[in-house]
Amino acid sequence: MGRTTTTRTALSAVLASTFLATGIGLGSAEVSARPSPQPLGCVPFISTFQLVPPLPGLFTPLPSIKGPSEFDGLPPAPRQEKLPAKVEFRDNTQGFNSRTEAVLHNGHLYARARHSSKPWRKVATPGCLDGEIVAISVNNNMLVALDKNGFIYSLDNLLSGPMLWNWTRMFGGPIWLWPGMQVPNKAAKQPVANKWSISHRISTSFKDPKGVTHPTTAGLVELVSLADDGSRIIYQDPWLPADFSYEIGGPEQGRFQANAISTSGSVTLVQNKYGDMFTRLYDLDTAGANHIPGRYSWQPQPKKPSAPNQLAERFNPGYAAIDLPGEDWKPQPKIPGTVTSRITIHDSGATAEDRELRVEGMSGGTTGYWHKPITASTWAFTPTGQPLRGQVLHGDPSTNQTALTLAPKNKVNFRGKLPDGWTMTTENFEWAQTKHPVTLTLPTGRTFNVELYTTDGLRLLPRGPGLDNNPRTLEGAIDFRSAAPWRPENAELNRLIRKQFNGAHVYETNIQATKNSLAFDRPGVVLVRK
Question: pLDDT tens for residues 92-138?
Fold first, then answer.
């Protein structure tokens, strides 16, 4: 085991040096060009994150040794009166899972059993990090802490007792071995403003957009952060390249400007400055990019049963594949009262659909929080009498004000030629979105509106954010069904589909996307920026 650990550490250090020396990887509009500081050296490289793979249902979580009594072995917090009597929120100062609740105070981390009135206990923390933590986030089996430079430090086994908790400063590919990674700068500079959140999905199943249940149980981790003006959502996965290249395309075709974000078990909640909110189930697996554990389909699927387990679904075509494109954003009802920017989503059951939303606010002059199951249509209020900690929002509870906070359209348009004088155009192309409107135009000027579906491909090496001169591989499909090519009056479109798209009403293809072109691997079409 020692030799394996040494080899992994050496490999990650070599890769890190290579990428940094060649300038590959951590480019971002928000990342300074100056040399970054280093992560704190006393935090270990290797933890159970690297030694025990997050295999579905086998090692997550590890069994506790003594149960809740393990907390009694930790030293008591010195100033109990400064710590909260209850933990009701998952934000960047406190959090909880089904077993543990944690709180950050003066750079130190404290914990106790969930729903306990027992004294808070000080969490064992590497000396150089203890007292230097500026923000935390907790979800399921994992806690993430940031230092003042935005470096990520992970605490494992939060669903087990404290005797099994352990730290690592590693985050990012290959396989959680990148020696130190930061969150985007704005998230780091506003550590307690709900600009970032950690998600650890270990639910028993999720439903795809067609309502089919899939028994996907892998312990998938992603850290989400708001970037730029709040309209971009970067996600970092400890098994993906150490960069800021992966994004969750935001609501309203990426134009929704969020002021706060929270995520739990791969379901993300965003809120704008008027209190309008959206939620979405999205991660590498549900988006269709990870073909190792998942089997996906862009095509219409005949009725097939759900698989009894993940292995059967992956290899037996008799069971339903995960339907693509993945789930879109869902608007949440406006809260009928005063709210703040302090928002929370947390697991409330075994499946991905079991999520509860909480928003700090007031009702009838009393402080507390609004809450509801994610699928419910109405909000309830729980009074706490505690001072409001989030920024009070001045939205209209009776009106959807999403349109008041939309970022400008990006005006990135692509156009290309098809045989027989046809042209293909897509306007305001947002690469991180999963659906893109496409117009097909005949020489006569007649148009057909169809859809292009895409998902970001799985990568091994770091790359820059967004679209640049380095091709980004998008997997996807062109869906002609909205134009009804089977109708007699659309015979010209039907002939084009038969001639150039193998007669498929949903035509699968990969796309090499740059800032100046979209090159379709099949049927060899290239759209050029206009």
Answer: 999 999 999 999 999 999 999 999 889 999 999 999 999 999 999 99
Q: Structure pTM? A: 0.91
How buried is residue 474: exposed, middle or buried, by Cβ count under 10 Å (0-12/13-18/19+)? buried
pLDDT of residue 51: 78
Sequence-distant (≥ 6) Cβ neighbours of residue 3 within 8 angstroms = none
DSSP category for residue 159: T
Three-point CA angle 193, 195, 252, nearest 5°: 125
pLDDT at residue 516, as a whole number:
98
Instruction: State the burial class of residue 414 (Cβ atoms within 10 Å of its Cβ: 0-12, 13-18, 19+).
Output: buried
Name residue 456's beta-bridge partners.
474
CB atoms within 10 A of CB 384: 14
Ranges in the chain, pLDDT < 50: 1-35, 56-57
Alpha-carbon Rg of the chain, whole angstroms? 24
Single out the residue of 107, 96, 185 nearest to residue 147, CA to CA: 107
**Cα–Cα distances in Å, from 58 out to 62, 217, 219?**
9, 10, 10
Q: H or E segment at 177? A: none
Left (φ > 0), alpha (ψ -120 to 50) or beta: where does 285 sit?
alpha
